Amino acid sequence: MKSVLKRIVGTIPVLIGVVLLIFIMLRIIPGNAAAVLLGEHVDQATIDRLTQSMGLNDPVIVQFFKYIGNALQGDLGESYRYSRPVTEMILEAFPYTVELALLAALFAWVLGLAAGVVAAIRQNRLLDRLFMGASLMGVSMPIFMTSLLLQYFLAFRLEWFPLTMEQGSLVSMVLPAIALGWNSAGSVARMTRSSLIEVMQADYIDTARAKGLGRRAVILGHALKNSMLPVITMMALQLSSMLSGAVITESIFAIPGIGRLATTAINNRDMPVLQGTVLFTTVLVIAGNLLADLLYGVLDPRIRKEV
């Protein structure tokens, strides 16, 4: 419990640093948010009045601490573009991102684990080469390329799936989930294979075989569990990255999630929304790291003793 609290406390400087960084970056970019909102053909006096009312003339350090104080109370500000609370907008968009990330993770983990285990058992044989070649392609191919290929062949040419997301349709989330999870599936497969092969060469595996245990019992009962430690860590980090980094997938498939909310905020120079989405996704990444540490300790009690 103490180690968990220590890690949580250690994340506070990270969060503050991220907020400060995004504050500085947004304010060194040329342009004025008030001018963007008002559009062209507006006199400078009107722009100045709106800039003053939005608090954009205050020193950056004043704006920063004001934002931190409000954020600690759950107030991430109000959207310049839509005049709505940022927290409300994030909570509306988050369920779509969660649905996409969970489906992508399910696809990636089931396919990746199965391919990795089969490749390790059939090491240097045809199945191993096929699965590792496919996983290398998955790791190497950019998400936007995978998304466009899936849309063209499976949605446009074959018409098996909708091109974009449809409200209430789970089928329309299949292609986005595959596109987002394909890269992760390749990583899981390669990590599972290498870890399982390494464990299979350990002395206690030879002892299990000497006791008369069959190949399946040795792999499933002994080798697989111990080879999962680095894989579980990767999977936990993948889930948090899917929750926080589905920007490209959501944009291509028109999914109104956190990623699309962030890209819209960038286009509109909507600083409160962008700051809120960055802060929220940072929390998700930190939570993913913490979850990975906890799972690691559950699977290997020796790690809990060392902490």
Give a topology summary.
Elements: H1 2-28, H2 33-38, H3 44-53, H4 60-71, H5 86-121, H6 126-140, H7 143-157, H8 174-200, H9 203-210, H10 215-244, H11 247-252, H12 258-268, H13 271-299, H14 301-306
Report what the structure shows:
This protein is mainly α and 307 residues long. The protein has helices at residues 2-28, 33-38, 44-53, 60-71, 86-121, 126-140, 143-157, 174-200, 203-210, 215-244, 247-252, 258-268, 271-299, 301-306. The longest helix is centred in the middle third of the chain and has 36 residues, at 86-121. The protein starts with a helix and ends with a helix. The model has no long low-confidence stretch (mean pLDDT 82).
Main traits of this protein?
14 helices, mainly alpha, 307 residues
How much of the sequence is in beta strands? Answer: under 5%
How much is the average pLDDT? 82
Secondary-structure element pattern, one letter each: HHHHHHHHHHHHHH
- Helix- and strand-based class? mainly alpha
Number of helices in the DSSP assignment: 14
Envelope shape:
globular
Low-confidence regions: none
| Biggest sheet layout | none
Quantity of strands, as a count: 0
Rg, please? Answer: 24 Å
Can you summarize this structure?
Helices cover 78% and strands 0% of the residues. By secondary structure, the chain is mostly helical.
